[in-house]
Each structure stands twice: as C-alpha cells, then as structure tokens.
Amino acid sequence: MLKQLLPDLYVPSVYDIDLEALKQRGVKGIITDLDNTLIEWDRPSATPELAEWLKKVEHMGFKIVVVSNNNEDRVRRFCQPLSIPFIHKARKPFHFSFKRAQHMMNLSSREVVVIGDQLLTDVLGGNRLGLYTILVVPVADTDGFFTRINRRIERIAFYWMRKKGMLTWEQEEGRR
After folding, report:
1. Is there a contact between 44 and 77 (Cβ–Cβ < 8 Å)?
2. Which of 165, 96, 151, 163 is closest to 120 using CA atoms?
3. Cα 4 to Cα 153: distance, rounded to the nearest angstrom
4. Cα angle 113-88-35, degrees, rounded to a multiple of 5
5. Which pLDDT tens digit goes with each residue over 93-115?
6. Cross-referenced InterPro entries, in alphabetical order (predicted)?
7. Is residue 50 in some structural domain?
8. pLDDT of 113-136, one tens digit each?
9. Which tens digits make up the pLDDT trace of 27-56?
10. Which CATH number goes with the domain that contains 76?
11. Any long-range contacts for 44-51 (C-beta under 8 Å, 24+ apart)?
12. Cα–Cα dist 50/64, whole Å
C-alpha cells in the first residue's frame, strides 16, 4: 500500500517543476489539483505569478485540466477566467475523474502527469492509473476539516516510508 502513496517526484511548488524535462519525457498533459496545490484553499482566484505560470504551461504546448474534490462554484470561479477546463466533485482518489480528464485531453497514460499536494487523493489516484505523480508542498498552512485528517494519515505514511528507505528526498519540507 505504501508504494501507491509514493510520488514519482517531490517539489516545493508547481514553480519548481522542470517543464522542459516533462516535455522530454513525452508528457503532453497535466492533471492538477486546485486547493493548496495551485492556490490557497480559501483564495478565489489565481495570483499574478500563478497566472503567468499557467500561460507558460500553455505556451509550451501542455494541455491542463484542474481536477478538484471541491464544489462546482469554487472550481468554476478559479478556472473560468483562465479558460482552464475542470472537473469538480472529483471524488479523488477514485479513478473516474482522472480518466475523464485524460479523455478530455485525448492523451495516453504515459503522456499525463498528476500534480497535487495530498498523498491520499492526488498521488494515490494518479498512481492507481499508472500516471506520473508529482507531490508539492501545500501552499497554505491551513486546511479544511477532511484535509486535516488526511494530513495526519500522511504524516504516518511518511514515517513508514522513511523507515523503509522509500523516500528519495531529504525531508518533506513544509509538510504538516
């Protein structure tokens, strides 16, 4: 079970992802979480820095779909001004939303990466489908109720992964 929670890559933020390296791997599409991955869970819209990063992603030829467990109003308010397709109430880590996003981009599993801030939703969901998974440090220090529960479970998983020598990074900086 721990292997299903292990991301392929761990970075401090989306800005630290080497997009050129992803292109060289044959990646053409990005499935990304919204809350605490791209922006704080309680921020309604993109920061100027994030809007610029999203333009860069698009300019480099990547397709992108936001897949969020949050409600339609929340996700639409963020995605619509940026013209980003989205899936709300995704029920991650269940596979159907990841498959739907992949279908929306018309890409194979080897051409898609999943970016998220949670092991139990984003990484587990992506890994179950054989997608390349990238874990980022949450952008906010606060979380909603259910996410706080997930964070406690994550700490236990990180402990056991570290104990078994599965982690390839020094420590999960900023992880709560």
Report:
1. yes
2. 151
3. 14
4. 65
5. 999 999 999 999 999 999 999 99
6. HAD-like_sf, HAD-SF_hydro_IA, HAD-SF_hydro_IIIA, HAD_sf, PGP_Pase, PGPP1/Gep4
7. yes
8. 999 999 989 999 999 999 999 999
9. 999 999 999 999 998 888 999 999 999 999
10. 3.40.50.1000
11. 44/77, 44/78, 45/77, 45/78, 45/81, 46/78, 46/81, 46/82, 49/15, 50/14, 51/82
12. 14
User: Is residue 19 a part of any domain in this protein?
Assistant: yes
Q: Residue 154 is inside which H or E element, if any?
A: helix 145-163
What one-character-per-residue DSSP string does 53-82 give?
HHHHHHHTT-EEEEE-SS-HHHHHHHHGGG
The total of structural domains in the chain comes to 1
Contact 31, 113 (CB under 8 A): yes
Closest to 33 in 3D by CA, of 80, 79, 81, 96 = 79
Amino acid at 15: Y
Asked if residue 173 belongs to a domain, the reply is: no
Helix boundaries (H) for 9-140 = 19-24, 48-59, 72-79, 96-105, 124-128
Residue span of the structural domain in which 112 resides: 2-163
